[in-house]
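Batch job 17 of 40 flagged for manual review because the log was empty.
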Amino acid sequence: MTKLKSIISWMPCLLFLASMAACSDDSTSSGIALEGPDIDVDPVMVRFNDAQTATVSVSYEGKWRAELSDDSWCSIDKKEGTGNDVITVTATGGNRSELQVAKLTIRAVDHPLLLKTVQLVRSGENFYVDPLEMDYGLGDDMTQIVKVGCPGAWTAKLSDDCTWCTIDKTSGNGVDSIRITSHLSLNPANVADATLTITSNDNPEQSATVKLTYQEKYLHGSLITLNKATKGKGINLIVTGDGFTEADMGKDGRWKDIMDRSLAAIFRFEPYASFREYFNVYAVTAVSETNEILNDTPSNTFYGVFYEQGINPGTRFNNQNFIVEHTPIKGQDIDLMDVTVLMVINDDKYAGIASVAGSPAIGMAAVWETSDNPINLPENMFPTLIAHEFLGHAFGKLADEYYTRGVRVTEENKAAYKAAKEAYGHWQNVEFTDDPNQFDNPYWRQMLEMNYPGVGVIEGGIYCGLGVWRSSEKAMMNDQVQTPYFSPVQREIIYRKIHELAGLPYSFDEFLEWDKKNLN
């Protein structure tokens, strides 16, 4: 696990400029796991026909609350609970011949944004349509599903003025579903709201209308394809953010600006810049209720990111499955070990962290703004923070090359790093011997044999000044201020990783030919 500490006062400024923000490697840690606090309900939809009661199971480690969106026709036997429990839902009043819909929301008390909903439907005379409202917004085309139930045949029709969405069927029989897909990228702005009407053929009085609302903003769970691979297998990168509120989600708002800046940062550095056409980059919208990032306790943001001891972003956060589920990656035969996620924190601290052992690997970076920071550091440090944490650690599996004079690497840490090298190919930019003939990285040895510019054997790395060696005095993994680029050895490792994931054949000689332009 790699951490980049934030700068919290003027006093450490000179130390920071000398060695960049302090990082720490703990190769025995599993990093950010895809588990994390979660709340589960079963089932996620309840339909009442003749039955008047149903039960919903709740699974959570702590306290939770339950709330009905409409209690005019149904009720629940408890509004709060702790741990695993069961809620009984009873269909009571209302007109039983009409379709009635409600939502039961189960929300964690200690994580208010951690919630699950259960759809409650009383279908009247065996006719139902659910849901009755759908929101669409900016971003890629979005498909949502309307469920239909009818004793016989039925028809579906969009309103005549609807030009921005389509349906996959206009008729059906019995229980079925309709897929409604937006095509906002192909139409101008100021799109009017629309409706979808489903009507029973045998009894035209049995009819329901779904309201389709367009909002000129990025909605929670929407997707933007920032970059599309045109060659190779398509290397998948995902960008998302925590602490961005609804106020940030406008067409030209802060969220979109940060996503664009993140994309520019990713392809600013070599070898990523040269191989952009091999990458898919997706941005997933996560809307938080607050932009306040807390210390030592999960924030009330969507992912619940927080700072440990007020410095490093915490290594665990909520709703991690949400990240992949809202991209085209979901459902494909893709190894999540080959997916890398950038989590941007909407905060002005210079802080970051990377997890390389998770699946997917995750790099985190705060949106540090020079103008908001009391330390007079060079501008555009946000891109180099992304480069160090996301491109270097999370994707390239590079170790930190910071070091502390006089500190010798322990045998325990050495064994852990060596095990990760052998098992996963991590940390190839550091060695535990100064004898090139014993290097784990054969390409570093070959560069030394040919006196490749900028490549040597220099003691110091992974926070130890003794017993570990790096290839360059300064580079991206230990000094993003003076040397905001990857060293030759670091570039070769990343170049090789790109070729592996893109399905390209690798040749060391071809790397050397390609790398000529980077030697200055």
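Reviewer: the log was empty due to a logging misconfiguration, but the result itself is present. The two ends are 32 Å apart (CA to CA). Unflagging and moving on to job 18.
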